[in-house]
């Protein structure tokens, strides 16, 4: 797939990802609170080892999720940067082609109406006149 044709809005993706992340954070918190509520306050006892293991599992899952999201944003940033570089190269190639066409048309002595219009358009695009 040609990266210049790959239209990707990283900001929109980040916003959507933040919404998903908030949802997942709430789910993790609910699970953690459920474990804490079930074992500690009602029975008036200290956490057992299995309670700590459950909380450690939740914290481990959360850390893995955060690492995954950070890697994903880095990867998307690289994709976006590559896309911008490709677009810049395409723009430079287009400018070079326009300049070459402008030089050919301006070298000719007798131009028809269509060629004159094209020459004026190229002049405006290239030099802003």
- Secondary-structure element pattern, one letter each: HHH
Number of helices: 3
Low-confidence stretches: none
Oligomeric nature of the chains? single chain
Largest sheet: none
**Helix- and strand-based class?**
mainly alpha
Short description:
This protein has 129 residues and is mostly helical. The chain has helices at 10-43, 49-107, 113-127.
Structural write-up:
It is a single chain. This protein is mainly α and 129 residues long. It has helices spanning 10-43, 49-107, 113-127. The chain has one domain. It has 3 helices and no strands. The longest helix has 59 residues, at 49-107. The mean pLDDT is 79.
Chart the SSEs and their pairings.
Layout: H1 10-43, H2 49-107, H3 113-127
Give me some keywords for this one.
129 residues, mainly alpha, 3 helices, 84% helix, 0% strand, rod-shaped
